[in-house]
Structure formats: C-alpha cells, structure tokens
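Consider this one:
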Amino acid sequence: MLFLNENDIKKAVTINDVIDAVDSAYRLYEANQFQMPLRMHVSEKENTLLLMPCFTAGAIGTKLVTLFPNNKHVPMLQGIVILNSSETGEVKGILEGSFLTGLRTGAVGGSAVRHLARKDATKLSIIGTGVQGLYQAVAACSQRPITDIYLYNRSPEKLPEFIAQLENWIETTVHLHPMDTVEEAIKNVDIIITSTSSNDPVLPNKKHLLRNKLVIGVGSYQPSMQEFPEALYELTDTILVDTEHAIDESGDLINPLAQGLIKPSSVQKMSTYILSEPKPSLGNTTVFKSTGMALFDVVVANTIYQKAMDKGVGTILSL
C-alpha cells in the first residue's frame, strides 16, 4: 500500500496533469461508466462530515472529509482518499485528502477555464481567498496567459498571507491586486471565480459588472449557500454544471429554480459540452457551477497514484 502526503502529491503531478484527469472523469461521466451514490452529509451545526465513494472500471475509491469552518489553528478541511484495487479490492493507496481536494477543485475550475474562457483572457478575479481560491488561481494561470489577478475577501486581513502563498505557485510576471470592494475586483476582468462558503450572494447584483465574462462558482455545495446574484441568471440561458446532482445540492441552482429565474432545461452538463462537436453557443456571458463529485476524486487520486508509482514517490506501508 502506498501512502502519499502533500509533498508526495506535489512531486508526482503538475496542475495540468490534474486538469487532464478531470477531463478524463468528464468522459467517464458522459459515458455513464461509473457507480457513484449521492455524497453522504453528516452535520452538527456548522461542522460537516462528507463521505464520497465511487467505483469505475479502472479505479475504486472513497473520500472522507471533515469541514470545520471555524477552525483557527488547523485547516478547516481535512481528510483522506482511500484507493482500492479494481481487481482484488485491496487497499492500494491512501492519499492526504485536504490538499488533494484543493488541487482537484482547482483543476475543475481550471478545466472550465480551459474549455470556456476566451483564448486571450488575461485578467482574473478571485472572490474568496481561502484554500480553494488559491488553487483556482493556480489552475486558471496554467490555462490562460493571465497577467493580473484581482483579489477580494470579506476579511481583508487574510489577503497578505494568501498573496504570499500564491506567489510561490505562479510566475513573477503575474501582478496581484488586493481590492477593497468586490465591484473593483471584478469590473475589468475576463474571468471571475467565486470560492466562498457564503449563504448570501457575494457578487454584486449589477448586470454591467457581470456581462461578457466567464463566471465560475465553486464555493456553494449546500442548499443554504449561494454565491451568484439574480442579475447573473438574467444574462445567460445556460448554466453548465459538473454533475447533475448540483441541481439538488447548491443554493446557486436551487434558489433561482424555485424563483423562476432559470428553468431546469437551462442547467446543462459540462461533460456534454466538452464532448460536443460543434460546440453549442453559450452567449457572451458564460456560467459554470461546480459542487464536485467523488468521480473526480477517484480519477484524480488514481492518476496521482500511478504517476507516484512511476516516479518512486511516496511511502510503502503495510496494514
């Protein structure tokens, strides 16, 4: 059995490897070549335990994650991914889960940038500068020639640490701009990525600030959470989602559907879009909503495992 911690994962794969794995997962999803129940949520007040198993022909795995948003001195997200042999069921790998989750979620956003952003997109806005915001920025920079990143957080005192971390990941030619308001952070950009746990929209309800942009939301994964404002739904006829279950999981879809702002037919699978030729028109304002799924975790974890084995990375353990 191979154990991979955060440093091992960094040695084994690049962000492009992980984005490629996400795209591979989309192909499995579109072909229905997987078994994946709805994720199990167990909550006590604001704290959550998530259990996410998945079975494919090439990989079997389960992610176990805890999310404690009020943690002060330890990460709010912690967990592991367990990989099993698809031939015998034996545990073949255990991977550190919080870093893998951040990297995988960043890669889902990176895949959206790869397939949806204009080729000449250079300006990016990150709303919510936590762990997820970091990997969203890293992944976006790997897919487009980003020159400027505009950063906003409701707790501005967190921005300096975020900037220091991001500078370790990206080219020094990328300029980082901490902004005082979300309006300033999004007004001149090509791509907006929201990565918060907010229960209320974090983007302004102003069409002119959202029009002609790619808007990616990765933060809202429960019905009580919502990052998108009403104005955004009025600018597009299609919202792309990473999984059909998102329509029952995220307030960014549940609420506008209940309010009649969008129709169920407006919600389309990203996997279908990626594999469609020719590509259907999405209009000038493009929206992608991710809630994540175990299929991503298992395919990404298996990719990391295989590359780690090829490179001799990690620690062999016995149960």
Notes: The radius of gyration is 19 Å. Residues 59 and 302 are 7 Å apart (CA to CA).
